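Notes to self after the Tuesday call (sharing in case useful).
The group wants a holo model before anyone commits to mutagenesis around the pocket. I volunteered. Ligand is manganese (II) ion. Logging inputs and output together so the record is complete.
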Amino acid sequence: MTALSKNRIADFLKSEPSDALVSISGWVRSKRGNKDVAFIALSDGSTIKTIQVVADLTSFNEELIRQITTGSAIEAKGKLVSSQGAGQSIELVANEIIILGEADAEKYPLQKKKHSLEFLREIAHLRPRTNTFGAVLRVRHAMSFAIHKYFNDRHFYNIHAPIITGSDAEGAGEMFKVTTLNVGNPPRNEAGDVDYEKDFFGKEANLTVSGQLESELAALALSRVYTFGPTFRAENSNTTRHLAEFWMIEPEIAFFDLNDNMDLAEDFLKYLINYALEHCADDLEFLEKRQQEEESQMKKEERSSLPLIEKLKSVIEGTFERITYTEAISILERSGKKFEYEVKWGVDLQSEHERYLVEKHFKKPVILSNYPKDIKAFYMKQDKDGKTVRAMDVLFPGIGEIIGGSQREEVYEKLSQRIDEMGIHRESLWWYLETRQFGTVPHSGFGLGFERLILFVTGMGNIRDVIPFPRTPKNLEF
Ligand code: ATP
Ligand code: MN
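Result:
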């Protein structure tokens, strides 16, 4: 038997009682019992469930059993028997236990009591061992796999966009600089500015805010492509929806217009949510209970209107509402609601506006399209009215914007003019502009924020709790 074919606790829990000797390794979640017997709940992260290891104390060294504390790692050997206890069908009766790693009970911070999510962020190195983070990480993995599967099954090619970029024109947010210059004493040019010609790349470099521009280049050759990589935004926004480093999925498709793009976005999101329901049932059940416990402390209007699993099902079963920005503005104006930020044609919608539309007015996901051109990026296709562009944002309950996308401007003259109007440094985009001169075609794409998807699917409230090691302002410990 190779190490890889060794059963995991998830497998043991599904197997039948047997006289065969098996060995189970994992971390102790809890130990209870009396002077005759010890019951150890063991987890190896393969499932939200633990397996119960039963040790008859007449056959074990007392000192060994004393050393088995919450957080320690053990290997238990014995036979699988049907369990008398409630909540599990199989348990291990141990005849040998080896302690792989002790965990000092005085110091181990994850004793078996409820810990706040804030506290768990301070021990991000250990939080994967909690039920909540185990569940989140398994769902996160399943979603990542499902994304690749969705695209592969539909003949999209995965493109690896670069992480270091030389263009600062993407306009999606503030960028992090990448340099090997001595920041304390950088070389200067004659004008006294930092001389980036002496820097590693011979020019200014940044971490990418989006893989879109490169994704477009590939789509204009392979027709259907997508990227799935880390992106970086140096915005100092300390919200529950923003990270400085997050993962984005960006499909880009040649011969797709805005409607095709919306169809893809809706189908994609429904597929992913359905995948979670089908493959992560135990974890979602746990997360639903967790959310309900957490929300029982909250005011009624702050609670989710549906339990997690029902909420996920409702998204799959319904159709997304599709309205234009202009229609959305008039709904908001007619709502009679006092918003903190002003509502009038031309303003960028704030999350309070988005959430009103999704949670109060339509009570389902909404795709908003055809935004004013002045609040959107230079590359979006201009509408005939000269005022709006073929942008689309998908808004989700409890989240706000989960996807932002558009049909791209494929006409060279229009794109070129917009770059100049917006004061964008066109030299750094010569290669992008050239695609509009050589075999340009209509094309569209969007960006799905991976962590926003995970927030929605897990029902977690803070984006810091759906990525293993969050990067946010003043937070770079782990
Ligand atoms: P927002 O208005 O919410 O700040 P954005 O309009 O700046 O987002 P886009 O540039 O359209 O976002 O990025 C595409 C998607 O990436 C968004 O729809 C969102 O899901 C996600 N996203 C954007 N910024 C962040 C961030 N800082 N942290 C996590 N996800 C983000
Ligand atoms: Mn956006």
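Two things stood out.
The radius of gyration is 27 Å.
The chain has a mean pLDDT of 95.
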